[in-house]
Every structure is written in structure tokens, then in C-alpha cells.
Request: fold
Amino acid sequence: MEIKDVKANQGNIDLVAEVKSKESPRTFEKFGKKGKVCNATLHDKSGEITLTLWNDDVEAVKVGDKVHLQNGWCSEYKGSKQLSTGKFGKIEVLAAGAAVSKTVFTNDPGLLKGDTDMEDEGTDEEDESGEGYDEEFVD
Reply:
């Protein structure tokens, strides 16, 4: 389903979209339990819509993430459609956004070329010039 096809008071919404922006979380207390909530803006090629994130989803979903909303619910607030997981839905992060990156430090030219054959993981290997080198792994 695309965002343009979502209608207010509709259930069983299944869509994949990217998180364009996210507001600061707010805390609340209801029936003696504390929780967190925030709004995020989702977009796909067809449009944008507000997604309300609750509790654990507030921290799990980041700007730039591609998310899959399954069995979601759309309500209307002040004339604007808002998606949420409702009682039975869930949000799955399919791909982390560009803000998330891993830094790899290496002296292995094969790794930089995309050669991931790691059979010889020992030390004192020889490089292309025939000279030995020691590997050091940094956490």
C-alpha cells in the first residue's frame, strides 16, 4: 500500500516508507504507568503522513530508517491523518538510515577491494611486497 491510499479510520494498513523527520519524545502517565510518545513523518513516492510512535518504538525508529508498518491503524486528528500500530500492529525497521554507519579500520587491501575471503585470520601474514605484517584488531 502507498501513503496516498491510506484513509482515515482504516485498519489493517501495511506499508513501507522512509522516516523523514521525528519530533522530540514526550512522556506521559496513564493508569499509573509511564510511557513515551512522539510523532514522525513518513514519506514514500506518493506522499507523506504522520506516524505516532509509542514506547519502545520511539527509540527503535530513527530519521532515515526504512520502516514496515504491519496491521497499522489510521485515525484523524485536527483534519490530518495519523498512522499508529494500534492494538495489534507492529513496526519493523527494514534498513537503517544514512545517519548510521560503521567505521572499519584495516590494513588488508583485499578487504578494501571487497574481498571477504577470511580463511587465514592469523598474524604474521605477508603483504603483496613479500614483507610480513601483524594484524591488530581495534574495538
About this structure: The chain is about 5% helix and 45% strand. The radius of gyration is 23 Å.
